[in-house]
Amino acid sequence: MSEHKTSLHQVSRHKATGGITFVVKCCEEHEHSVHIQNPGLYSQEELERRVAWEKEEAVRRHTSHLAAEEFLKRLAAN
User: Fold this and answer.
1) Tens of pLDDT along 14-39?
2) Distance (Å, rounded) from C-alpha 58 to C-alpha 32?
């Protein structure tokens, strides 16, 4: 898997906390949950930067997960 693809899912507003939650998926298999408290306090540009960072974080976590999985498979093969 050379290029990771991210997408947003399950965007929902939480009345009790005043926040918004969503899930970032990487390659449709690794999920990363996000909560933004008081999203109305941020400009659209700030929210775009936050979403971009969360997508990058999902790719980092997925890449790390895949590397750990391969490492453990190698250990198990020995």
Assistant:
1) 877 789 999 999 999 899 999 999 99
2) 6
